[in-house]
Amino acid sequence: MNLHIKGCRLIDFRSLNDAQKRLVLEWRNHDAVRTCMLSQKIISYEEHMLYLESLWHMKDKLCYLVQKQNRGIGVIEFGNITKESAQIGLSKNPHIKGVGNLLMSLIESVACEKLHLQELQLEVLERNKHALHLYEKWGYSVTSNQEHLICMEKKLCC
Ligand SMILES: CC(C)(COP(=O)(O)OP(=O)(O)OC[C@H]1O[C@@H](n2cnc3c(N)ncnc32)[C@H](O)[C@@H]1OP(=O)(O)O)[C@@H](O)C(=O)NCCC(=O)NCCS
């Protein structure tokens, strides 16, 4: 189901049109995004379509394309969703700047208002200083740091 929050339209990946599917894939494969992911391989259109199809069967995963004033600004994701917590991910449109704080605030709005969660977790590569700075600023604390992968969590005050 699509959402409207803070002047943004959040389009559920299960209702993307073909142009939006291609846009999300182009962003994911862009060097600036791909190199920050745990799996850095280039994803083919066919693999991407299979992934999008698989979301219909995954009850514990939600992904949204975020649009502001009809322009795509990024993607936010929730995985391993339980009654209490979820693992989050985000990435911006690689062709724009300055949307990290907005994407974080949308994540927390969805977590509180739609999913009614108490805690969010995430994983980030140790070298991704930009994302680390953002997460620390938003109150996430490190829970482990092994083999250059940092795990963080935040208790929500909804
Ligand atoms: C993480 C990401 C969403 C942040 O979006 P963004 O638009 O670049 O973020 P912003 O410009 O809003 O900056 C957020 C903060 O990081 C700071 N920042 C910018 N560049 C930085 C850098 N190189 N090192 C540290 N901090 C940096 C900004 O100053 C800002 O902090 P402030 O609000 O205190 O001024 C974006 O960089 C991205 O999509 N990266 C690729 C995918 C990714 O890394 N996802 C996370 C995987 S765990």
Helix content: 25-40%
Number of DSSP helices?
Answer: 5
The order of strands across the largest sheet is: 1-2-3-4-5-6-8-7
Report the bound ligands by name, code or SMILES.
coenzyme A
Shape: globular
Radius of gyration: 15 Å
Name of the level-1 CATH class: Alpha Beta
- Secondary-structure element order, N to C: EEHHHEEEHEHEE
What attributes characterize this protein structure?
globular, 8-stranded mixed sheet, 158 residues, binds coenzyme A, 32% helix, Aminopeptidase, 5 helices, alpha+beta
Give a short summary of the structure.
This protein has 5 helices and 8 strands. The chain has 158 residues and is of the alpha+beta class. The site of coenzyme A has 20 residues, from helix 2, strand 5, helix 4 and helix 5.
Protein architecture, described:
The chain has a single domain (about 5-120), classed as 3-Layer(aba) Sandwich (Aminopeptidase). The mean pLDDT is about 95. An 8-stranded mixed sheet has the order 1-2-3-4-5-6-8-7, sandwiched between helices. The protein has about 160 residues and is α+β, with helices and mostly antiparallel strands. It has 5 helices and 8 strands; from the N terminus they run ββαααβββαβαββ. The protein binds coenzyme A. The site of coenzyme A has 20 residues, from helix 2, strand 5, helix 4 and helix 5.
Helix and strand arrangement:
Blueprint: E1 3-5, E2 8-12, H1 18-29, H2 31-34, H3 45-54, E3 62-68, E4 71-79, E5 85-92, H4 100-114, E6 119-125, H5 129-137, E7 141-146, E8 149-155
Parallel strand pairs: 5-6
Antiparallel strand pairs: 1-2, 2-3, 3-4, 4-5, 6-8, 7-8
This protein binds coenzyme A.
Residues 32-33, 36, 90-92, 97-101, 103, 124, 128-131, 133-134, 137 line the site of coenzyme A.
